[in-house]
C-alpha cells in the first residue's frame, strides 16, 4: 500500500505591508505553479514576521529527522516563483533569495518576542492553531480568579500603557473595578472595555500588525480585562484606514464565539463577555481616549473635560477601561506565565517589552520587539542597518508626529520612559522615523504645527488657533523676516500651547518644534532662504 506524501506547507503573509509589496500576487503564483506541476501544497496565510525589506517573504516547512523547520526566501516577486520550484525550495534548495530559518537570523534571534511571538507563525484566524501555540492559557487561568486577583497580577507585572501615555495598566483597571456605577453606588452594574485601535501616529504599525497577525491575542486580552473589572461588553475602536485588520478581527471574533471563547457562557464558566468592532472616520484626535469615547457614542470626536476620568465615567457615562492594542495583547502572557516572568524584562519602571517600529530612511525597516533598555543606536544600526541612502543619520523622531527630534548625540539613550522624559522626549507608541543629513529641520518643525492645525478637534483655542499661527511664524522665520522677534514669538506661542491646551495634541505639538530649534538651530538661520 503506497503512502501519500503530505502536502508541502508554504507560508505567505497577508499583512497589509506585505500585500502592498506584492504578497497576494506571489501567493497566487505559488498556487498556480504548484497546480501546473502536480505538487500538493497547503498555503497558510500568516501575519508578517516584521522583516519588511524581505517581503514578500515565502517560508516553506521542511521536515528532516522528524523535525519541522521553516526556511525563508525573500523578497520573492510573483514572476520569481517558478524559479523557486526549479530550485527545489520544498527541500530548502539553494536560491539567491534563500535567507534560511527566520528564527536563526541574528536580526530576529536577538529580539524578545513576547507579544508578537505568534505573529507570522500561525494562521491568524484559526482558534485551534492559536490554542496549539499557547493561546487562551491566560484566559483559562483568569477563569479561576476573581477580578481583584487579575488586577493584582497585571499591577505586579509593571505593565504600562503602550499607546503613549505609559500609565500603569493595573491602576487603571483597579479604578474601574472599584468604581461605583452610580452616584450612590446602587445603580446599573454596566461597565465597558474599549480598545483604542485608532493607530494614527506616523511611522507606527504595531497595532495593525498584531490585529492582522494575531487578532485572537487581542480578543483574549480584552476578555480577561472584562473579567478583571466586571465588564461584559467590549468594543474595538478601529481606524477606517485598516480594512485588512477589520476583516481579520471580525473573522477572529466570529471564530471565538463559535469555539465558546466569547458569549454568554464562556467555556462553561457562566461568565459572559461580548465583543464587536466599531469603525472611526479617520480623525487623529480620536486617538485621545475621551474623543474616542465621544465618537464611539456617535458624536463628533472632541476631547472631554477631565475629571471625571473615563475609568469613572466613560462610555455612555459608565466606568470604562480604555487601553491600547498592545497593552491588552500583553495581558494573556502575564496571566499565563505570571507577573514575575513579564516584569523580569525591562529596566527601571519600564517593564516588559516594546514593539518598536522602524521607519523612514533605514535599510531594514520593520518591527522589532525588545525589552526596555536597548538604545536608539542599536535599533538604528544593528537592526535598521543604517540609512537607506548611505548618508549619516542626522535625526530621529520617536513617538509619532508630536515626538521630539533627537540628534546623533542622544542616540545612546536607552528606550525607557523615564530616560526619554529626562531628555525632553517621549517613547509614545514606539514608532521611530529616521532622517539622513539631507533633512530640513525647519520644514519638519513647520510640519508638526501644520499637522496639529489640520487634526485639531477645535475645542480649545491654544490648539486650534495656536497651531495655525505657529505655521505662519515658522514661515516668516524661514523667509528671514524679523527672525529674532519671530523666534521669541514662537517660544511664547509654544508655551501657551503646552500649558493651555485641553489635551496632548496641542500640548505636545511644541515638542518637535522646540527640539528641532534646540538641536538643529542652523536650519533656522536667516541665510537658509524661504521655506
UniProtKB/TrEMBL annotation:
> Which Pfam families would you find in this protein's record?
Complex1_51K, NADH_4Fe-4S
Q: Which cofactor does it need?
A: [4Fe-4S] cluster; FMN
Query: Which SUPFAM superfamilies does the entry link to?
Result: Nqo1 FMN-binding domain-like, Nqo1 middle domain-like, Nqo1C-terminal domain-like
- Is Membrane set as a keyword in this record? no
Residues in coiled coil: none
Q: PROSITE patterns annotated for this entry?
A: COMPLEX1_51K_1, COMPLEX1_51K_2
Q: Which GO terms describe its molecular function?
A: 4 iron, 4 sulfur cluster binding; FMN binding; metal ion binding; NADH dehydrogenase (ubiquinone) activity
CDD domains (UniProt xref): TRX_Fd_FDH_beta
Any idea where the NADH-ubiquinone oxidoreductase 51kDa subunit iron-sulphur binding domain is? 442-487
Domain of life per record: Bacteria
Q: Does the keyword Metal-binding apply?
A: yes
Keywords from the named record? 4Fe-4S, Iron, Iron-sulfur, Metal-binding
Question: Would you identify the family this protein belongs to, as annotated?
Answer: Belongs to the complex I 51 kDa subunit family.
Protein name listed in UniProt: NADH-quinone oxidoreductase subunit F
User: What is the phylogenetic placement of the source species in the record?
Assistant: Bacteria, Pseudomonadati, Pseudomonadota, Gammaproteobacteria, Lysobacterales
Amino acid at each position: 500500500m503506497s503512502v501519500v506524501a503530505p502536502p508541502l506547507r508554504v507560508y505567505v503573509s497577508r499583512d497589509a505591508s506585505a500585500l502592498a509589496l506584492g504578497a497576494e500576487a506571489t501567493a497566487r503564483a505559488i498556487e498556480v505553479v504548484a497546480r501546473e506541476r502536480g505538487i500538493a501544497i497547503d498555503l497558510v496565510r500568516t501575519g508578517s514576521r516584521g522583516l519588511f525589506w524581505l517581503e514578500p517573504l515565502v517560508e516553506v516547512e521542511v521536515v528532516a529527522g522528524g523535525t519541522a523547520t521553516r526556511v525563508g526566501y525573500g523578497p520573492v516577486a510573483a514572476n520569481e516563483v517558478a524559479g523557486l520550484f526549479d530550485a527545489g525550495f520544498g527541500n530548502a534548495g539553494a536560491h539567491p533569495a534563500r535567507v534560511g530559518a527566520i528564527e536563526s537570523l541574528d536580526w530576529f534571534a536577538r529580539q524578545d518576542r513576547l507579544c508578537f511571538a505568534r505573529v507570522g507563525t500561525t494562521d491568524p484566524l484559526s482558534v485551534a492553531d492559536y490554542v496549539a501555540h499557547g493561546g487562551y492559557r491566560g484566559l483559562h487561568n483568569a477563569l479561576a480568579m476573581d477580578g481583584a486577583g487579575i488586577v493584582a497580577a497585571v499591577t505586579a507585572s509593571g505593565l504600562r500603557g503602550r499607546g503613549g501615555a505609559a500609565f500603569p495598566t493595573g491602576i487603571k483597571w483597579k479604578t474601574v473595578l472599584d468604581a461605583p456605577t452610580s452616584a450612590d453606588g446602587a445603580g446599573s452594574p454596566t461597565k465597558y472595555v474599549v480598545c483604542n485601535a485608532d493607530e494614527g501616529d506616523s511611522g507606527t504599525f504595531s497595532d495593525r500588525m498584531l490585529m492582522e497577525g494575531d487578532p485572537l491575542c487581542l480578543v483574549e486580552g480584552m476578555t480577561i480585562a472584562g473579567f478583571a473589572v466586571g465588564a461584559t461588553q467590549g468594543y474595538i475602536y478601529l481606524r477606517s484606514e485598516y480594512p485588512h485588520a477589520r476583516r481579520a478581527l471580525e473573522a477572529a471574533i466570529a471564530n471565538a464565539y463559535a469555539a465558546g471563547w466569547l458569549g454568554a457562557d464562556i467555556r462553561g464558566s457562566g461568565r459572559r463577555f461580548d465583543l464587536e468592532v466599531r469603525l472611526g472616520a479617520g480623525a487623529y484626535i480620536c486617538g485621545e481616549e475621551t474623543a474616542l469615547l465621544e465618537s464611539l457614542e456617535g458624536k463628533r470626536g472632541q476631547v472631554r473635560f477631565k475629571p471625571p476620568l473615563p475609568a469613572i465615567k466613560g462610555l455612555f457615562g459608565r466606568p470604562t477601561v480604555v487601553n491600547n492594542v498592545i497593552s491588552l495583547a500583553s495581558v494573556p502572557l502575564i496571566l499565563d506565565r505570571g507577573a514575575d516572568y513579564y516584569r523580569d524584562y525591562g529596566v527601571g519602571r519600564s517593564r516588559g517589552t516594546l514593539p518598536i517600529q522602524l521607519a523612514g530612511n533605514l535599510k531594514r525597516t520593520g518591527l522589532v520587539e525588545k525589552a526596555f533598555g536597548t538604545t536608539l543606536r542599536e535599533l538604528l544600526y544593528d537592526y535598521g542597518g543604517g540609512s537607506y541612502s548611505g548618508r549619516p543619520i542626522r535625526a530621529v523622531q520617536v513617538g509619532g508626529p508630536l515626538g521630539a527630534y533627537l540628534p546623533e548625540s542622544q542616540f545612546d539613550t536607552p528606550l525607557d520612559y523615564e530616560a526619554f522624559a529626562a531628555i525632553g522626549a517621549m517613547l509614545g507608541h514606539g514608532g521611530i522615523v529616521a532622517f539622513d543629513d539631507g533633512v530640513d529641520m525647519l520644514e519638519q518643525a513647520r510640519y508638526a504645527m501644520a499637522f496639529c492645525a489640520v487634526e485639531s478637534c477645535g475645542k480649545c483655542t491654544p490648539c486650534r488657533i495656536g497651531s495655525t499661527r505657529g505655521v505662519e511664524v515658522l514661515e516668516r522665520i524661514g523667509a528671514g523676516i524679523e527672525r529674532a522677534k519671530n523666534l521669541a514669538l514662537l517660544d511664547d506661542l509654544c508655551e501657551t500651547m503646552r500649558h493651555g491646551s485641553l489635551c496632548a495634541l496641542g500640548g505636545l505639538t511644541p515638542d518637535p518644534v522646540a527640539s528641532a530649534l534646540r538641536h538643529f538651530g542652523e536650519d533656522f538661520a536667516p541665510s537658509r532662504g524661504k521655506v
